[in-house]
Write a structure and sequence with these properties.
about 120 residues; 5-stranded mixed barrel; about 15% helix; single chain; alpha+beta
Length: about 120
């Protein structure tokens, strides 16, 4: 089991259960976070649209997020709605929809310049 440091955007959360589903910067499988997993940040509160950095482990084709750190609160608040199948259907998507693409590369470049 290897661990990778990754950025992602929270798509869904259950605050009562302290769980979240995260869209990863590599556009691979989604990562799952459970507050019951060991975390370096106790009491981290994640909301849909938050940009986070986390340690990602793959276990039997399941990505698990650990040690999430908030990078930008409400950075992409409407991301879950934008990713719905009816919103991204190739038949229904106008040419101008390409402006709705969220590039993690652009964020990574801003981060490199800031450091």
């Amino acid at each position: 089991m290897s661990s990778t440091n990754m950025y992602g955007v929270v798509l869904w959360t259950d605050t009562a259960e302290k769980k979240a589903v995260i869209w990863c910067e590599d556009h691979g499988n989604l990562a799952f976070y459970s507050g019951t997993d060991q975390s370096a940040v106790e009491g981290v509160s994640l909301d849909a649209g938050d940009l986070i950095q986390f340690d990602m482990n793959e276990e039997s084709n399941l990505r698990r997020a650990r040690n999430p750190q908030l990078v930008g609160q409400s950075h992409f608040p409407e991301i879950a709605q934008r990713l719905r199948p009816e919103a991204t259907s190739h038949r229904a998507m106008p040419q101008s929809a390409a402006t709705n693409v969220i590039s993690m590369d652009a964020f990574a470049e801003r981060r490199r310049v800031a450091v």
